[in-house]
Amino acid sequence: MTQTPLSLTSGSFLQLMWLASPALPIGGFSYSEGLEAAVNAALVATEAEASDWLHHQLHLTQSRGDMAAIAQAFPAWACNDTARLAQLNDWVRHTRESSELRLQTEQMGRSLVEWLKNRYAADNAAQTQVQWLAAQDASYPMAFALAAHLTGASVRDALLAYAFGWAENMVQAAIKAVPLGQSAGQRILARLAQEIPAAAEHALALPDAARQAFSPMLAILSARHEHQYSRLFRS
Q1: Where is the signal peptide (predicted)?
Q2: Rounded distance between C-alpha atoms, residue 167 and residue 21, angstroms
Q3: Which residues lie closer than 8 Å to 116 by C-beta, 6 or more apart?
């Protein structure tokens, strides 16, 4: 018998849209995650190359790394397993192979924690979790996992929201850095949107031993970007 999946409540759905929005004041728009360096190195110069770059980044780094960490953090937040959360947070921070990528996850993590302090100011239970995370030098994936958990959404829906928010920011970075037109950006976003459910399922299926963030070319490009003469983005 086919099982009907549980639908999101209106409140959870709207809060996930809020978390995925580029308007959320956490600074995601200021990072290109190595894409600007790839453009500078003539590795990405067309719509097709930008689309392929982001497609590979979704499946090779996001789904196997940050999204998998978010998936594993969700049950830890549900039972307040701080030892497990600290382990996952340390793993995320140690996977950043350049100073600017480390800066990104720490800055966005801090900004989201500050947003959560304000958003849940009247919720004592939520504040306890937020204050604990604030003391950990929170990475962005761990802060997002808490924010999404507090919406009451499922982990799968949280991953879809996270990945779409990432995709929107990266497409905007491609439009500015390559540069591309808005229609090209929408075509790239449409391709990523088709791939995000599979990326989420892959992230959900990964155990600790299979979680990884091995992307040596991205690390090299990020290190080069730190000394790039002209830059639009912080990474």
Answers
A1: none
A2: 11
A3: 126, 130, 143, 146, 147, 150
The answer to whether 133 touches 142, Cβ cutoff 8 Å, is yes
Distance CA 16, CA 147 (A): 9
In order along the chain (235 residues), what is the average pLDDT of each group of 10 residues? 58 93 93 95 97 97 97 96 97 94 96 97 95 95 98 96 97 97 98 98 95 90 89 88
Instruction: Tell me 6's DSSP state.
Output: P
The string over 18-41, giving b where at least 16 C-beta atoms fall within 10 Å of a residue's C-beta and e elsewhere, is ebbeeebebbbbebbbbbbbbbbb
CATH match for 33-225 among 3.10.28.10, 1.10.10.10, 1.10.4190.10, 3.50.50.60: 1.10.4190.10
- Domain ranges, ordered by start, for the chain: 33-225
3-state secondary structure (DSSP) of residue 192: helix
Q: Which two tokens stand for residue 135?
A: 């003391």
Q: Cα separations (Å) of 32 from 127, 158, 198?
A: 31, 22, 23
Two tokens at 39?
A: 């453009």
> What is the model's pTM?
0.94
